[in-house]
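tool=predict chain=A
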Amino acid sequence: MEDRNAADPRPLPDDVVATLQRGRKLEAIKLLRAARGLGLKEAKDCIEHYIAADPALAKKMAVAQAEAKRGCLLWFAALVVLAVLAYGLLAAT
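tool=predict ok
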């Protein structure tokens, strides 16, 4: 049996759609929860259903997720380099 909120025929609010177009899925879920009074699972299912129904948006979300992962890896690498440099400076004294 399909979740009734995922198949909700009401269109998403404009601010939720605009947020999704910017690749901000978590923010869109928060906005939808506030607008419709849904629980976390229901709002997440509704957003994922909307994304799955729009292939262009699904591709855009995949690109945004890949960019976010790359950004996290760069920050992690920078922190590792700083930690190694700090250790080297402290060990030298």
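Confidence is low (pLDDT under 50) at residues 1-5. The longest helix spans residues 55-92.
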